[in-house]
Amino acid sequence: MYRIDRAEALRYLGYRGQAIEPQLDALIDDCMEECLQIARPRSVWRRFEVSFPEGEADVTLPAAGFALPGRDIRAHLSGCGACYLLAATLGVEIDAAIRRYEAGDLTRSLILDACATCLIESVCDEAETAIRSQAAKAGKGLTSRYSPGYGDLPIEIQPRFTALLDTPRRIGLYCSGSYILMPRKSVTAVLGLRDEPAGRTEERRGCGRRCVDCRLKDCLYRKEDAPCA
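The structure corresponding to this sequence follows.
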């Protein structure tokens, strides 16, 4: 079931343990409820075999004629024979609400934006859980999610990424000419599939990287020593 982590939403809003006035506290609760009501969460994923060309930094998906460029994604998928491409979105309704409040109630707009950021992560978590369950039945395990824009995996792959998953038709997710996902509250990610040692049940959460390694240097939530999780 999709949920909004209130503590995480507060972190996105810059909360550092200071007291919250009752009126603001109630507004946060109201925004969480509104976000859950108007969002239209959807996700899609697809499995691809992977190969690691000798002497190259890329990982290739031969059946798709697609390459995941960069040494970081190659290291992330090390030991994997296949991967899943995943895309998720909250739909256009939440974007419209955030923009509408920007004109007359900026505080509500900012809070709703933070709530939506948490919710899309919950949607990704649910999708990952479903994929992980499928993998476990085959004796396989998953890496954590790794998105275009992390490390040296460029966001320029987004158009091809979304085309392979047919996201415009299947979940209403598009990529702009400047490689921005639309609706804004959307995520694409790669998860590696690899043999799992017998009896191992732990889930790997978070990409394990730190924000200083991320190429999205203008991210509002970037912290100098915070691991992505």
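Residues 150 and 214 are 5 Å apart (CA to CA).
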